[in-house]
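QUALITY CONTROL LOG
STEP: pairwise intake check
CHECKER ROLE: data steward
CRITERIA: each record must contain a sequence immediately followed by its structure tokens, with no blank fields

ENTRY 1 OF 2
RESULT FIELD BELOW
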Amino acid sequence: MTASPSNSGAADDVEMTARRRARPAVVGGAAALAAFLFLSAGAALAQQPGEGGATSPSDPLAPLSLFPRAPSSDEARAAESESRQAEIKVRSGIEINRLSNLAPETVGLLSLAQGGYGLNLWQGSSRRSVENLLALLPGELASASLRDMARRLLLSEAAAPQLAPDERISDSLLVLRAQALLRLGETDALNKLLRLVPATANDREEIARLRFAATLLAGEQESACIIVRNVLPRFEGALFWQKAQITCLVLQNNEAAAVLGLDLLREGGDGQADFEQAVNAALGYGPAGSFVAADLLEKVLLARAGAIPGAQALRQASPGDLAWLARLATLSPEARLPFAELATARGGLPAAELATLYQAVSFTQGERAAALSLTENLSGARARALLFQTAQRQKIAAARAEIVAASLAMARTDRLELPMSQALAPLIRAIPPLPELDWFSGPAVRALLVAGYPAEAQSWLTLARQSAPRNPEVAQALAALWPLIQLANLDETRPLDIAAWAEGAGIQDPVALSQDKILLQGLLLGLEEETTQEWVDLIDPDLLPEPMPDAALVFALIQASATDRIGESLLLTLRLLGQDGPSNSHVAALSVAVQSLARLGLVPEARALAIEAAVLRGL
């Protein structure tokens, strides 16, 4: 038996350990090998469909429907992208015809009209550069805007870059793209992309490992273990598949075979101490190891053991890991919610899934009726879930606006403004911008801009401007929103006066004010907006110097964007900002990245990145 996963929040700062029990003695040598093969075969036979009415597991290679992931303002974005692609084709004199039967490396889930970056994505880039940059794409992208760009890039239909005379293909771009999706934890997208892999590539171990990992992370353990059973004869002796087989035996409750397999692995001298500890924890023999440092198989085993640390201990975990934990069926919705909030904040989980988890938390009718008063004493994810459910059930616009405003204020205090704004956006969009709701115009504009709905924010902004002359609170909120309004291009006044904004911003800390002015000036410069601010006036001896970004990356990005190398520019942007994200990247790096995207015609992406950076840094 295994320890059941805990749903308690008491383990936020320490890892839980599996219960201990005495491990049975096992035979060694040839006898152990024979026993292991016999027991493993028995487990495999048990999975086969029988004649007594047993049904076969779902085919892990069956085609899946295209997932409906469409960014906001799809039609505008597609039209702008079409125009950009046409302009680049005209300038280069090159036209790529879209064929009905695309080459294997060209296939993808997203055409240009579906949010992809077009068949000319790699035009002008060398094969070697693209392969290197795809391999270097960081999996820890902790940014919603960057992950959206990465996801769309990796799923785009795009002609492969042309080989130079001295170049050779070192790996399939399709495999490199799939591996990058796995690092990002984009298992749904990865599973769908793998459906497009030609049958001739199925004998490659890299493809088999990708299929197994994607299926396992999707929670389809039975199908994942069928993949292991099918590939073992082809990759006999490979350490990964030996460990995968042992993992499957644990998941199938075949303890005796798993223990024997582990002993054989140890006798092989492969030094898999962390894996052995994870297996023992899953079987209930000892304490669990570190979840954060674990690999894929170890994480699955530790989850089986219930050795999942609290969200506080996983604040530095990758968005992919957080999204996987947010979907873990062995945890209750309330236990999954903190992981989901962090994952959504970093772009690893769609806001709709976070909203679904908010809805799934249980409350009494009395708690919902007294939500606003109760949340004065409640905190954390449970309080946010209560406010979300209450706002969703509220039919009166003014009452819903009051609850939404309280939710947004709490989320901003807890540094979760981005995921809460995204989750609440459908509710805010359903509230009409009526004159009697002018007090809500400030929170509505900010939340809609953060969530990526500038057109809807414009209606509330109009209301705020009409009300500001007679309502000091609205005027104050409008002044505070000035940076985001400019970054979203919702103000036609030019040139922009950053000094005037700073005087009325009410920021008491002079160092913080200097940092905000430098950030805003850098982002507006990237968007090529005209300001009255002189850079020399922003030199502040009290500001500590920041480490400069990688010079080669910066100049490579400037060069690639100047020559319309779209895919290469996107990969360089992800590499430049991915390590630190918009919240911690140097302002110079942010400015160059925003400017490069804008010059390539990717203006919505440029503004989304700028707004995210501003929000994450407290503007």
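ENTRY 2 OF 2
RESULT FIELD BELOW
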Amino acid sequence: MKKLFLLFPVLAVAFGAVAQSEIILGELADSLVSNASSVVRLDRTSVEVYDMTSADIRYTRAVTVLNRENPAAGWFSCTCDNTCKLTKFKGTVFDRNGKKIRDIKKSDLSKTEYSPYLASDSYTYFYELHYADFPYTVMYEWEEKYTDGIVGFPEFAPVLEYKQSVEKADYSIKVPNEMGLRFKKFNFDGDFVREEKNWQNGMSVSLSGCKAFVKEPFSTSLTEKVPHVSFAPKSFVFEKTNGSLNSWADMGNWNATLRDGRTELPEETRLLVHQLTDTCQSMKGKVKALYDYLAATTRYVNISLGIGGFQPMPAAKVASLNFGDCKGLSNYMCAMLKEAGVPCHYATISTIYKRLYPDFPSFRQLNHVVACAVLPNDTIWLECTNPQLPFGYIHSGIAGHDAVLVQAGESRVVRLPELPDSLEFSAIDCSVEITPDGLSHLNVSERYTMKDYEIRRYLLTERPDKINTRIRDFATVSDGVVSNFSIEESKGEKPSLCLTYMLESRKLARKSGTRLFVPVNTFRKGITKFAAQKRVSPYVIDHELKADSIVIRIPEGYVVESLPKSMKIESPCLDFDSKIEKKGDCINVCQRVLFKAGTYTVEQMPDFETDYNKMVAALNATIVLKKTAN
């Protein structure tokens, strides 16, 4: 590969000059350019904590954007709130020859206070750099000041996206004695240079020569691949409350203090709880009655205002306003359960991470709150932000996840039950009638359970025109005319959704001369093959079962000229069965796809991509019908 030269002049700013030798002098190594759309030339973070409530954090980030594939790699953003302010900022843009093109001042930044939350004190500064002469380099230097409490620190994570390599990155942190410092390293055994230094209540870490990561299908998230280090205090102060992160129990106990005095219900709500539950024949009946009441009378609105990002709204306030966030609604549900005499817990959980690191409690790992009712022989988990989900159903965002049960002095980590793979599937039944001139009439039934049910549940309230667009896209017929649409939901601990409709299209069967070309399975045509590239990471497979049955009636005056061959694939992670046969004046298509959940090394699955591509070819196969002579 041709060497790429990018020379930089000395860049010095009043708040932390960066030496020229540390930025870019000379050429970029081939290994950093290979598979990359951007190169981080320098990523530097310096964290200085003065006491339990105040800190300064200084950042430098210089990125060379190599091509137009991802210009957003050169953009800037910084989110602040009432405890964090952007105090200094400077940006500089250089062209391919190292000539300074422009300076970026703090006054050039855009600022938005838009938030999906009803109440939030956060706002974001951002700058979108648009420069078309690639490659170019942009360097940002900025400072943030924290006041009124610190519950965590920024990560050392210089790789922010796929196809981004790192030339040099370093991080240093110093905290006061009373705070203490904990850290956890991830993926630090890669092909790059790294260094670590420790001192009393502080440390530094650096890496260089980190190659770009290429996105691969059936793989873990980027976060689980790139080198990064998480930091957290041992003790913290936040908005005049004290807490410890030495254990998950300590964190849960702090959360418990935030609920003190916030579980009392108004008298009228207490009376209503008893009206709803006193005649119930079982504890489970009481829980369901209150869950249904929550669904009928409240709505979800997120609140992230100061300590409100951690503290629930008082139950009495939720009762009067009829809305709350995950904390407020779960706290309200627990208050009603307690009034009804049902043992219950308030629990913090993540909808992103299944596992909590047992040796490294941190707020970064949790983003949600749920409630659970504890019955003599059962535990019922309650998603209070979406009580339209069936009662007793543990949705895929929390199923199998670790959670912290919050209870004063007795908080602990538990694990929610998994969704059973055996109950999750999707099925399509379709009959196709094709007229001699190529007009297709489809009668379709789609059925979805468990996770697939969750994904498509939005269709219950979707507008008719949006539903029609979804059906046309799913059936891959842009001219499709939808009629007789109906949708039926079966609620319960094993929920399902059934869609039925009729579809008419002139684009399903393609007519060419005396032939009609008909897709074997028009509903799976969007699946694409593996691209030819060397596999690096293991295959991470989620359970998925699809079973499709399609009956295509041969139009009058046509005969079958060719049918795709039937196929069967059996492997440790993929089973596929495709049967296509002519019976009388019909062609019967039965296709079944089963992905078996697990993590498989490349060595374990040397033929997976070949098998997968064969499956895709079979799903995308075409039946050829030929017109008979008059």
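INTAKE CHECK: passed for both entries
DESCRIPTIVE NOTE, ENTRY 2: The mean pLDDT is 90.
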